[in-house]
Amino acid sequence: MKKRREQKNTAAIFLSVVALMWMMHTLTKNFVSDPDFTKLIAAKESFTADRSLWMFMLRAHIVLAVVSLLTGPIGAIRKIRLKSIAWHRWSGRIYVVSIVLNLIPGLYLSWFVTGSLTVAGFLVLNLLWLATTWLGYLHIRRKNLAKHRQWIVRSFFLTYANLTIHLLLPVSQYAIGLSYGASYALAVWGSMLLNLGLAEAVLRKKWLT
Which parts of the chain span the membrane according to its record (predicted)? Predict the structure, then answer.
């Protein structure tokens, strides 16, 4: 029992460290190094969006995603959860609200990515992220703790999809030799499959539940 608890805490802390590092990278890259998203726009085959609105939506998407990455690990760390259930509940509420609100910029930005397969991938990813989060919320409202934890773990791993996309993109583009558009589509769809697969593995091992 003690060993299992240690495994749960180790897994949660590891994911928290990864989330923190990715948040720092994301904020530095998009708000300090390239605040006008010049490199991202240059990588696109075409750019038809209203630039001001697109940049506003992208910034909103990034900030809300960072909030999700920040609050998600708080709920996953058992010691914090047991020490203050109120803190756990409030961090959970913020997590859910940040993802629900992120649907708007997420869907908007999806229409302006390169390639129809990538567009479809981002639409599916955004809807899956919302659905898993909402199911987790509904189950805790119904006092079904086991189902709540299962769906929140799936939601939690989809929160890391952007990180996985940026890991898979250079692999498919430079190692496999695909075009940027094809690499991006593969990375988006691959991130969903990989992250949900990892979530199911974690659930079976009960590393976070």
Answer: 12-32, 52-74, 94-113, 119-139, 151-169, 181-203
180: nearest Cα among 113, 109, 110: 113
Highest-confidence segment of 23-32, 163-172, 199-208: 163-172
Q: What b/e string do you get for 132-154 counting C-beta neighbours within 10 Å, with b at 16 or more?
A: bbebbbebbeeeeeeebbbbbbb
Residue 154 is classified by DSSP as: H
Share of the chain above pLDDT 70, in %: 93
The H-assigned helical ranges of 31-84 are 38-43, 51-76, 78-83
- The model's pLDDT over 60-107, given as tens digits with 9 standing for 90+, comes to 999 999 999 999 877 777 677 777 788 888 999 999 999 999 999 999
- Pick from 136, 134, 125: which is nearest to 196 by CA? 125
